[in-house]
Amino acid sequence: MNRQRPLSAFPHLDPRQVTGRRTHPDPLLGNGRVRLYASGRAGLFRIVAGLALPPGSTILLPAYHCGVEVEAVLRAGCGVAFYRVRFDLGIDLDHIRALIDQHTRGILVAHYFGFPQEISELAALCRQRELVLIEDCAHALYSRDQRGAWLGTTADYGLFSMRKTVFMPNGGAVRVNRAELPLPQPGIRYLDRSIVTSTVKSLLEYGATGSGVPAAWARRLLHSHERRSDAATAAANDGGAVRWYYDVPSLDYRHDIAALSRWCAGGPEVREIVGRRRENYRSLAALLAPRLADRLPFPELPEGVCPLCLPLFVPQRDAVAERLAARGVHPFVFGRHPHPLLQPEQFPEATVLAAGIVGLPVQQQLTERDMALVADILLQSLDEVTTS
Question: Which residues lie within the region annotated Disordered (predicted)?
Answer without folding.
Answer: 1-26
